[in-house]
Amino acid sequence: MGKRIVVKFGSGILATRRGVGLDQKQFTRLTREVATLVKDGHEVIVVSSGAVAAGLDALGLKERPEALAARQACAAVGQGRLMACYTEHFQKHGLTVAQILLTHGDLDSRIAYANVRTTLDRLLASKVVPIINENDTVAVEELKFGDNDRLSAEVALLAEAHLLVLLTSVEGLLDETGKLIPRVDDFEEVAKFVRDEKGRFSVGGMASKLHAVQIAVNAGVPTVIASGRTAGPMLRAAAGKSAGTYFPPQPV
Predict the structure, then answer these.
(1) Extended strands (E) in the chain
(2) In a domain, 24, yes or no
(3) Rounded distance between C-alpha atoms, residue 130 and residue 29, angstroms
(4) Which residues are 4's β-sheet partners?
(5) pTM
(6) 3-state class of 55 per DSSP?
(7) Side-chain-side CA neighbours of residue 209 (13 Å)
(8) Mind listing the pLDDT tens digit of every residue in the chain (252 residues)?
(9) Separation CA 148–CA 198 (nearest Å)
(10) Residue 25, domain member (yes or no)
(11) What is the DSSP letter of 246?
């Protein structure tokens, strides 16, 4: 039986190395892997950053602006480009995409929460790939709390997902020597290893991701943090194989 999987793509793996514009090679590989999951019978929801990076390119800017209004303007311009990119790449695999823009406030509303869940169920039943992003033009939270990390965890709960995969620019959670920690059962044990480094064009660091992980695993959703710059972590995680750092569901 297929799983319902939420995968989160951060700006650090969708933008070009210089952070301006979208990395087409990355989109080619990531959409191919999502398509493989769908072909294998899984339902996949994508929580995607990247609108600001796309907007920077469209507006001819060379770096992420400091002013909130300027970043929101970049997101407003870039969101259409982001969806066009997903549409083009998923069409190559015979898949249709749908755009859903949310704020944390939407998920705090009982009516909106139920409506989003119903919409997701219908889209997934129709083999459509939902692309969810923070509604950056109105949501200050995204620019304050993390690069869609918390949103991806909340979506995993809403959708009753079987797995959450956070793809980032590092291979997973690293210890003090820089070695990958393959599995984490106790958050307190790994807290001392967290270095909240983030890319110049990213918003969320590892602390943000661990907060999202805690939300998910405390609700019974196993979670993986892995590199989105290498091939196959989504496929390995879906198959129950080693991929990045694995966080099992926490006992209630």
Answers:
(1) 4-9, 43-48, 97-102, 129-134, 163-168, 223-227, 245-247
(2) yes
(3) 18
(4) 43
(5) 0.92
(6) helix
(7) 33
(8) 789 999 999 999 999 988 889 999 999 999 999 999 999 999 999 999 999 999 999 999 988 888 888 988 999 999 999 999 999 999 999 999 999 999 877 888 899 999 999 999 999 999 999 999 988 777 654 444 456 899 999 999 999 999 999 999 889 998 888 899 999 998 777 777 666 555 444 445 788 889 899 999 999 999 999 999 999 999 999 999 999 999 999 876
(9) 14
(10) yes
(11) E
Number of domains in the chain: 1
DSSP character at residue 192: G
Domain contains 106: yes
Domain of 37 in residue numbering reads as: 4-247
Asked if residues 151 and 10 have their Cβ atoms less than 8 Å apart, the reply is: no
Residue 252 in any domain: the answer is no
CATH number of residue 176's parent domain: 3.40.1160.10
> For residue 50, what are its two tokens?
């990247």
